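ok so I'm stuck.
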Amino acid sequence: MKQFTSFIILLVLFPLIEPAISQPLKGEHPKPVLVQIQKTDTPSQIIEKAANIVPTKEQFDWEQMEFIAFTHFGLNTFTGQEWGEGHEDPELFNPVEFDADQWAKVLHNAGIKMIILTARHHDGFCLWPSNFTDYTVARSKWKNGKGDVVKAVSDACRKYGLKFGVYLSPWDRHESFYGDSPLYNEFFRNQLRELLTKYGKITEVWFDGACGEGPNGKKQIYDWASYYKVVRELQPECLIAVMGPDIRWVGTETGYARETEWSVLPDIVSTDSVHNSFDSNQLDDGFLPHNFMEQNLGGRDKILKAKNLCWYPAETDVSIRPGWFYHEKEDSLVKTPEELVDIYFNSVGRNSVLLLNIPPNKKGLIQQEDIVSLMKMNKTIKQIFRKNLINKHKWFYEAREYKAPLLINDVKHHGCAVKDSSAQGFLTELNYEWKRKTVFNTVLLKEDITKGQRIEKFHIDYWTGSEWKECASGTTVGYKRLLRINDTKGTKIRLIIDASRGSANIKSFGVYYFVKREG
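replied:
not stuck anymore, here's the structure
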């Protein structure tokens, strides 16, 4: 290792489940979510700025949910399509056993914290009786045209303690004026206003980037900034996802985040006139929606060339089935519990929120095959993290031959930080000893992201009885990092932080042993 200060610390261990750490208390000076890089900034100053960017309270609360759901539902459910063309007969929509309570109860029992409903997909068919189009549930057979899916799902979410979000497709293949950009943009804002005023608190609005030509042969130009203003005005605590400045799409629909997943990204705002600010809304005017699909989004080589930096966390979406809408032929192709657990480890466990699509069937219910897989997934995750093998013991700190000051930060929540003046980072060891040889195969790490995301590289060793051997390694940690390894037996374990952007604020360190049982 290059010029890393080496030392060992033993400290009071923090529990796995901790009270939520709030944003800065009243009277404190909050840290920025967006900063400008000055031409005179040195590399070390840029790294320091990146290390101190933090999420807004709404982003932090969103990341704590970890596991949320999409529910793709609409005319496509009845036609067997994925992308409707916009001229399908609305009378086809008739979920005769529709039960939003069943959705909410199932998803709540599966450990899911929010439902995002496809209020309108690309075909333009609205799951609420909009006043701005006749292509809605009001023209369907369902409930004799008196039904409102958005209201029913919103109410069910409140009943079962779930957050509620809406997906509103910018692309509308039904409306004849799509492509007449000013006219369509006002139509879109009006529908957005309906969704944001009639259905209670909306936690997340989901915009994708689907766009095409209208009947006039012109490609629609979306007025994104004006859409954001509607959201900020009507639901100021609501997060705008994917084609918006609060949450980004991870870049694939596989369910797998990057091995190195940074929440601090360069240049998501186009303008240079960015001030160090605590108001995330200033992102809106300069934000240009696009997909972030590169493997390296926030590494040092990227941020050192940046004009501005922002907290922009990842959301990882995937469907429990091959398609996004329900198709009976896919009942045998539902992802297994093992596949879903693997997705959980590679999304939530890679510093992102998992957005799992569970599409209701033609009856208006979540299909039994999906329920079985979800429940077994949740049971397995609970079993894996049932017992932290170091949770009930105490660590003591002892510093030996270190040059940098030892800091025990945030005593209330048992966090810790070890700081080194080197711009290149430092070596930290968190060292724990068992009374006897202990077997483990799962490791959990969390940073205190209210102080920033900082860890760039780490590894974990175990003591065989005669020597230290490496059993796991990784790059970024962020909100949460999960590692599954082969069964490993040792009397000691240590976490070594090989590189960090200044102080590494470790919030949680958990070690677990999971034995897979059939049934």
